[in-house]
Amino acid sequence: MNDEIKEKLLKKSRATRSEFRGRIISFVCTAIIVTVVVSIFYFVASKGLATFFSNKVNLWDFLSKTIWNPGSTDSHGSPQAGALPMIVGSFAVTILSAVIATPFAIATAVFMTEISPNKGYKILQPVTELLVGIPSVVYGFIGLSVVVPFVRHTFGGTGFGILAGTFVLFVMILPTVTSMSVDALRAVPRYYREASLALGATRWQTIYKVVLRSSAPGLATAVVFGMSRAFGEALAVQMVIGNAALLPHNLVSPASTLTSVLTMGMGNTVMGSAANNALWSLALLLLLMSLVFNLVINKIAKRGKF
Amino acid sequence: MQNYASEDRYIKELDPKKHEIALSTEDLHVFYGTSEAIHGVSLPFERFKITALIGASGSGKSTYLRSLNRMNDNIEGTRVDGKIMYRDIDINGKGVNVYEMRKHIGMVFQRPNPFSKSIYDNITFAPKRNGIKNKKVLDELVETTLKQAALWDQVKDQLDQSALALSGGQQQRLCIARAIAMKPDILLLDEPASALDPISTSTVEDTLLSLKDHYTIIIVTHNMQQAGRISDYTAFFHLGNVLEYDITSNVFQRPKIQATEDYVSGRFG
Ligand SMILES: Nc1ncnc2c1ncn2[C@@H]1O[C@H](COP(=O)(O)OP(=O)(O)O)[C@@H](O)[C@H]1O
Ligand SMILES: [Mg+2]
Prior knowledge:
The complex is a heterodimer of chains A (306) and B (269). A two-stranded antiparallel sheet of chain A has the order 1-2. With 306 residues, chain A is mainly α. Chain A has helices spanning 2-10, 14-53, 59-64, 84-115, 119-133, 136-155, 162-186, 190-198, 203-214, 216-232, 235-240, 258-265, 274-303; strands at 68-73, 79-81. Chain A is 75% helix and 3% strand. Chain B is of the alpha/beta class and 269 residues long. Chain B has a single domain (4-113, 184-264), classed as P-loop containing nucleotide triphosphate hydrolases (Rossmann fold, 3-Layer(aba) Sandwich), CATH 3.40.50.300. The longest helix of chain B is centred in the middle third of the chain and has 14 residues, at 135-148. Adenosine-5'-diphosphate binds next to helix 1 of chain B. Chain B: GO terms for molecular function: ATP binding. Chain B: Residues 23-264 form the ABC transporter domain. Chain B: It comes from Agrilactobacillus yilanensis.
């Protein structure tokens, strides 16, 4: 009897073997994912940096010049790859759409969690989830057939441009930012609200001074997440922004973003050519920006613990 | 748990000529949806005294206490019937400014719940909402309330630090200080020491005893020794009824009701 237990203590059993197998499987999967991510980074970086090393485009020119025509060369013999119009376009639509979406998203979230947490939440929650799931081409199509004509009639011009892009992105990121804001507000402990109410604060004072204040990091994360979506969105923006690689003079003149130039140009360049490498440089820029957005989100999230 | 006849009760009457009544309820019923949690409780609370509400878990102490400053308003589906008399007004009635009322009837919760703000901002939260802006007045208020809550000496050099960095007992005393910074008449406390260690518990108890001169205190407690130590009156809750209400020494030493006797001698609870 005793010996049997002793023996078992030292022997491998089915349980230990299956644990070993599980570890191997998860290690292999992790290794594959890491390899894929690293190769993507390597691929994009090597292609994107070729513009600067092989085609001798000056990095500063790339970031500050306004003529985008990488198929032809300038007086110094290097490709005309001035990405400033697209950089400006991308940041303009991103920042503008986030600025407009934030108050709407937070107000909706406050309604769903504080003002009508039962009925309002039950109705609006599935609606936001539905809106999050709509493919971006649908938003773009609606933008093309509704927003662009509306802008044309109201402000003149073609209707294509930053304003139309902003509007489409605003509608697109609104549900995402709203649903993340709802999560942030719901994470505020109930006893915070009770503490405030028990001190004679009104509901509005409680929302404003306690709930919104203490969920500020979560709300900021929601907004930055929305911005990162807006920055990376390609299809919907491309359909309404006009796709002219020009520095926009105003909100209703045709413009372009990093993503829209990428999607437009992808099929029209030869792999390895200067024009193709220049597109990879834009992709690299996008990748770096999404890295920045992620870093910001992580930084904020660390501060948002209760 | 044994079922005791709820007709078998002893509720001590307080002669209004000899005892000043700060707050009282008359036939108070509380419903969560359709289930009735409090079945008609009538109790007087004497001014500048400590009244303890004791009883087994689930007997309705918290429900009753939270009705007194209408915190149950915030739970959907609750209904409170009956009268809550405060300064000759039924504050359970329509047309009562609940926010104003809560400035006079403050509450401290079971779980210390300071805001994630500085110690200073926690205390000035209510006064600022009341429009006090003068820095000197606020500074003074912070000092006096923290002294009253026996916390001043420990935190006077870190008023601008987060309240969440304090220990549990300190947080609870901060919550008491925060509540009395509104200068309420009445302080409701729901098991304020149950989440604390024995030493913190006794500092909180000392704090309450020292506050008695200026505040009417109603405290829910699970801890019978605590009720015995600090309270003047005790109400024994059982299944949503108050079966016995008397001066504390009577409830613990000469209970008139069988259920009370069984409870205070530890036969159930
Ligand atoms: N929010 C609520 N919704 C429904 N029922 C509740 C709620 N809070 C308490 N109750 C019920 O009311 C009764 C009294 O609870 P409570 O007042 O918390 O008792 P105690 O504080 O004496 O432990 C219990 O039966 C409990 O289940
Ligand atoms: Mg309770």
